[in-house]
Design a protein that fits this description.
Elements lengths: L4 E8 L5 H17 L4 E10 L5 E10 L7 H14 L6 E8 L2 H4 L4 H12 L7 H9 L1 E5 L3 E8 L5 H6 L2 H11 L4 E8 L3 E8 L2 H12 L9 E4 L2
Antiparallel strand pairs: 1-3, 1-4, 2-3, 4-5, 6-8, 6-9, 7-8
């Protein structure tokens, strides 16, 4: 990390596997390079619940060569990238300064403690760190997409149904049905359920598109749909 830079902490109200978040981060870095933005992913991860299901995705970005004149330009481009890729309602960008060692002695001790704690412990599973970021950072809300989670019952259907029908077909079919209004962005495999996470223009529109298939495909019996953004 440079002697002094700005930290941008992206909180996506999205349920993502680490692999899917990694692909999103790689795409961001490619766009940043094309725009000559000196950016580096330095942390992040998924906040998860007691069942291990993702609650929120966090991406910590270090922005070098920042000053008061260009920080809004940089944050605008960060938000624009996510608005064009994945930006569920309820997402936020937190921006705060990373102070270099040479400047630390003259800063407020409590403020420095907050920054150090966040940087040394990326918010992978501790929701309390979100409030710490709010204390020291500027919050910029963003996001326009709504989310739908389709939870497939993984234990109460006949065994022959699980053997005969493929969840990949459900994934691919939902993606196809949502063309033009959304897509399946990720999934989660729990002990008793498998969830497909879809984000798009409207929860109601997505339900309308996939419901005829879900209501008739045997593997989707006893499934449930939940609004997640």
């Amino acid at each position: 990390m440079n002697e002094k830079e700005t930290i941008a902490l992206v909180h996506l109200n999205a349920k993502l596997r680490p692999e899917d978040q990694g692909e999103l981060e790689d795409a961001f870095l490619e766009v940043a390079q094309e725009l000559n933005i000196n950016a580096e992913i330095i942390g992040g991860g998924s906040l998860v619940d007691d069942n291990g299901e993702s609650v929120e995705s966090v991406i910590e970005i270090a922005l070098a060569e920042c000053n008061d004149g260009n920080i809004d330009y940089l944050t605008d481009h960060i938000i624009a990238f996510f608005e064009a890729t994945l930006a569920p309602k309820g997402s936020s960008l937190f921006v705060f300064d990373q102070v270099g060692k040479a400047d630390a002695a003259g800063k407020d001790d409590a403020h420095q403690g907050d920054l150090a704690d966040i940087q040394s412990n990326p918010p992978q599973a501790d929701e309390n760190l979100i409030s710490e970021v709010e204390k020291v950072g500027r919050q910029i809300p963003f996001g326009h997409q709504e989310g739908l989670a389709l939870y497939l019952n993984g234990r109460d259907l006949p065994m022959k149904t699980y053997k005969k029908y493929n969840i990949k077909h459900v994934f691919d079919k939902c993606n196809s049905l949502l063309k033009g209004i959304g897509m399946v962005n990720s999934y989660w495999e729990g002990n008793s359920e498998t969830a497909l996470y879809m984000y798009g223009n409207s929860y109601e529109q997505m339900v309308k598109r996939i419901e005829p298939f879900v209501s008739t495909y045997p593997l989707c019996a006893k499934s449930r749909m939940v609004k997640i953004a």
